[in-house]
Amino acid sequence: MNVINTIQNFFAKDMPRARTTDPITSHQAAEQAAEVASNHIPRIEQALEQYGPMGASMIAYVANLDKNQISRRLKEMQKLGIIELTGNTVKSNTNRSEREWQLANYAENRIESGHLGFN
């Protein structure tokens, strides 16, 4: 099973976007949302891989996505084990504090590859 199918199955089973009592149009919209989400995830992952840990605002900028799209995906990606919080906060583009995200095991990978400095 490829990554896109895995993500879509995850959204269908673990994060349903429509209730069983919702009309068919809601279920159709939920399917489309899962497809969109599966396209966002690789872009977010690539941004974090290329630039390292950052907040949602910077991820949105680098991935060329809306911050609202990013915010929703971050929690989903965390649940999938793709990303994790660093425990740090960073300033957003509006100078507000926001949580910093990194690829899961980012710190361990940096140590193993010998990249111990700052980005």
What does this structure look like?
With 119 residues, the chain is α+β, with helices and mostly antiparallel strands. It has a single domain (3-113), classed as Winged helix-like DNA-binding domain superfamily/Winged helix DNA-binding domain (Arc Repressor Mutant, subunit A), CATH 1.10.10. The chain contains 5 helices and 3 strands. The protein has helices spanning 3-13, 24-51, 56-63, 67-80, 106-113; strands at 54-55, 83-91, 97-103. It has a 3-stranded antiparallel beta sheet with strand order 1-3-2. It is elongated. The model is unreliable at 114-119 (pLDDT under 50).
Number of strands: 3
Gyration radius, rounded: 16 Å
Order of helices and strands: HHEHHEEH
Q: Numbering strands along the chain, what is their spatial order in the largest sheet?
A: 1-3-2
Q: How much strand content do the residues show?
A: 15-25%
What is the subunit arrangement here? single chain
Helix content: 55-70%
The third-level CATH topology is: Arc Repressor Mutant, subunit A
Distance between the termini: 34 Å
Quick structural summary:
With 119 residues, this protein is an alpha+beta fold.
Features:
119 residues; Arc Repressor Mutant, subunit A; 5 helices; 3 strands; 58% helix
How do the strands and helices of this protein lay out in sequence?
Elements lengths: L2 H11 L10 H28 L2 E2 H8 L3 H14 L2 E9 L5 E7 L2 H8 L6
Helix pairs in contact: 1-2, 2-3, 2-4, 3-4
